[in-house]
Amino acid sequence: DVQLVESGGGSVQAGGSLRLSCVLSGATSNPFCMGWFRRVPGKEREGVASISNDGVTTVARSVSGRFSISKDDAKRTLYLQMNSLKPEDTAMYYCAADWTAADCYSGSWYNYWGQGTQVTVS
């Protein structure tokens, strides 16, 4: 079975940095799309960044210039580098993967999700 396991979350002061990782296992091929999403209780899930199998990235305007997404296909690992963190970045961060998504940035296309890692910025 396909599994996604996030790590790297934690508590950090405003202006600090974190790097999230997401390891994919159980897949026979690399996904067409992978992405990072976040959710704050009481609010809708928000797309943060996505990357296609050929490396095309999309980053949300709210994090552009501060966050970057990358992947290591050999390690089946997705990363989210988060710099200049702000309190409004506090959320549960989820990674997702899909092999047939038509839009890598839209969460509605993803069928495989991790359990999430909490990021708290104070």
Write the layout of secondary structure elements.
Elements: E1 3-7, E2 10-12, E3 18-25, E4 33-39, E5 46-52, E6 57-59, E7 67-72, E8 77-82, E9 91-98, E10 112-113, E11 117-121
Parallel strand pairs: 2-11
Antiparallel strand pairs: 1-3, 3-8, 4-5, 4-9, 5-6, 7-8, 9-10, 9-11
How would you characterize the overall build of this protein?
The model has no long low-confidence stretch (mean pLDDT 96). The chain is mainly beta and 122 residues long. 0% of the residues lie in helices and 49% in strands. The chain is built from no helices and eleven strands.
> How many β-strand runs?
11
The portion of residues forming beta strands comes to over 45%
Shape: globular
Q: What is the number of helical segments per DSSP (H or I, 4+ residues)?
A: 0
Distance between the amino and carboxyl termini? 37 Å
Please identify the oligomeric state: single chain
Radius of gyration: 13 Å
The residue ranges in which pLDDT falls below 50 over 5 or more consecutive positions are none
**Could you give the order of the helices and strands?**
EEEEEEEEEEE
Mean pLDDT figure: 96
Q: Outline the biggest β-sheet.
A: 7 strands, mixed
What structural class do the secondary elements suggest?
A: mainly beta
Portion of residues within helices: under 10%
Question: Summed up, what is this model?
Answer:
By secondary structure, the protein is mostly beta strands. The protein contains no helices and 11 strands.
Provide key terms for this protein.
0% helix; 11 strands; seven-stranded mixed beta sheet; four-stranded antiparallel beta sheet; 122 residues; mainly beta; globular
